[in-house]
Amino acid sequence: MASNIAYRPPTWYPPVATPWENFRRSPACFLARWLYKKRRIRRLISPSLALTKTRVSIVCISDTHMTQPDVPDGDILLHAGDLTNRGTFEELQSQLDWLKGLPHRYKVVIAGNHDLLLDPSYVARFPDRIYEGEGTSRSDLDWGDIIYLNNSTAKLEFPDGHSLKVYGSPWTEQFGTWAFQYPPIRQVWAESIPPDTDIVLTHGPPKGHLDLEGKGCPQLLKELWRIRPRLVVFGHIHDGHGREEIVYDAVEAAYDRVMMEGRGIVTVGLMAFWALWSWLWDVLCLPRSTYDGSDRTHLINAAIVGGRLTGIQQPAIVVEI
């Protein structure tokens, strides 16, 4: 049953940039995003990712912020962080008790920037903002059967013998003074994810994908190109709720290069050329190679609390692999 605990949104938000302001800030990124949206209208996402012979249902949620929404049943529950508002022991334990009561075989959780107590360096730097005392420390939290990942991997095994490797990390680019954050000039993602990872669980999105016009991380995007996992689940940017695919083709390579570098009018022109070529290929009904799911990564922004932190609940997203 969904909880009636209401999310308390901030009282001020930065104004939303106009299209003209976005264009002036970065013409290449603006044009690349426009082309990418046009190109993606032609693509449909299959509900099954065909990673294993036996289908496994994965329920994706994030940014619950002290709400306890109705969650569909499934084999795996992934929570991509921001369980709480203030990150206190009491808030965290309340959310963990809720998650422990859910019926999923595996429940995998990472922290978000609001989950202050879980970041020991934040607690050490800001003892006036988050209290950790006897009986209310990280070690006193009762996780039950929940798997907590912090820049680490879990191998989830199933009765028929197959398994899935999940890598989880709470890192997001610095914005304000929150937990698990890093300045953009600091390299934290390079070769951090094991190459045999099936599912990546992060708090923030890769840049240019379900991230509200470029608020994601270019470092993370580059790392995803290196390992090419089947599924990436995140939240953090509430307005980006939904699903998308990274298809490892020439158009995607050009688009993501612009996102990673933040510039490149020539690359945008190359992207337009490959998009036109792909369109002509489809119009002429030329054959394509058989789709087996190995050429793409499925992205899920699973933020539950609605855009602009309004408190409106968005649905959990369920995929099968």
Tags for this model:
321 residues; alpha/beta; six-stranded mixed β-sheet; five-stranded mixed β-sheet; 7 helices; globular
Please characterize this protein's 3D structure.
With 321 residues, this protein is α/β, with parallel strands linked by helices. It is 25% helix and 18% strand. The protein has 7 helices and 13 strands. The strands form 3 sheets. The chain has a 6-stranded mixed sheet with strand order 5-6-9-10-12-11, with no helix packed on it. A 5-stranded mixed sheet has the order 4-3-2-1-13, with helices on one face. A hairpin with a 5-residue loop joins strand 5 (152-157) and strand 6 (163-169). Helix 6 (250-261) packs antiparallel against helix 7. It is globular and about 65 Å long. 39% of the residues are buried.
Brief write-up:
With 321 residues, the chain is α/β, with parallel strands linked by helices. Helix content is 25%, strand content 18%.
SSE blueprint and pairings:
Blueprint: H1 19-25, H2 27-40, E1 57-61, E2 76-79, H3 89-100, E3 106-109, H4 120-125, E4 146-148, E5 152-157, E6 163-169, E7 172-173, E8 181-182, E9 199-202, H5 218-227, E10 231-234, E11 242-247, H6 250-261, H7 265-283, E12 296-301, E13 317-320
Parallel strand pairs: 1-2, 2-3, 3-4, 6-9, 7-8, 9-10, 10-12
Antiparallel strand pairs: 1-13, 5-6, 11-12
Helix pairs in contact: 1-2, 2-6, 2-7, 5-6, 6-7
